[in-house]
Amino acid sequence: MNINDNGRYIDLHVHSTYSDGTFTPKELVLEAQKKGLTYMALTDHDTVAGVSEIIECAKGTGVKIIPGMELSCEFTTKDLHILGLNIDYTNKTLLRKLADCQNARRNRNERMAENMKKLGMEADIFLDGDISVTRANFARYMVDKGYAASINEAFSKYLDLGKPVYEKVVRISPKEGIKLIKEAGGHPVLAHPYLYLLDEAGIRDLVCGLKDAGLEGLEVIYSVFDEKQVRFLMDLADELDLYITGGSDFHGANKPHISLGTGLGNLKVPETLIKNIL
User: How far apart are CA 25 and CA 250, in angstroms?
Assistant: First the structure.
């Protein structure tokens, strides 16, 4: 599979302050303008709460917004993330299910806050409202409060599986997630396939199973993937008749090494890939 590069670039994996990013929708649009991006997908975790705002902010800027989300699904090693791209963010079935997901996340977050208190930490982080609070929000809070020197340390000492603050959240299955995205008119894409602690045989098995469940695409171009990994995923997508997408997974200060549109500095997601989800 060859990718046609027309010299214009996009970013289909971006987070805002509506989940665990630190840029508001308006700030994301301004940054996308600076980077010369033609399309950007807002893909906050388990929420579409910021989509209408970012669409409004982008009017007249030349940056076209793709409504999206990053759906957290149950998996054996860690959460499995399915991007829903170009979804109908007003779909009532989608909104009801996302409300259920947010309730489950909120319950988990309350248990994590209690765990922090047991360790003698303050835990007055924002747990309600439209923001989809993730462990990354907890990590940023811990750094700001001086409980951890870095976000990585916050995870390794407190927030990773088996650590004293961690609590599991009930997730929907990948099959349910794919079905939900398609029922909302969206395109389900497996996010960052190399981040699930699998070897290439395991990735192949995972993707084959998800293809049978209705998966349409793979996020092949990603900030931390090297050339060999990209080639494997491109070949796999070609073999299974899946299209490819790409994105930075931008979180602002919560992933300070990742820049919007350019990732670690050399990421390029050609605009030509947008045809698969429009």
Answer: 12
Q: Who's near 166: CB < 8 A, 6+ residues apart? A: 112, 115, 135, 158, 159, 160
Cα gap 233→246, rounded to integer Å:
11
The conformation of residue 184, written as its DSSP 8-state character, comes to T
- Could you give the CA distance from residue 158 to residue 162 in angstroms, rounded to a whole number? 9
pTM score of the predicted model: 0.90
Q: Which of 66-70, 119-123, 207-211, 241-245 has the lowest mean pLDDT?
A: 119-123
Residues 142 and 148 sit within 8 Å (Cβ to Cβ): yes
- The proportion of the chain whose per-residue pLDDT surpasses 70, expressed as a percent, equals 97
The set of residues, in sequence order, having a beta carbon less than 8 Å from that of 100 and lying 6+ positions away, is: none
pLDDT for the residue numbered 232: 98
Q: Are 82 and 177 in contact (CB under 8 A)?
A: yes
The radius of gyration computed from the CA coordinates of the chain, to the nearest angstrom, equals: 18
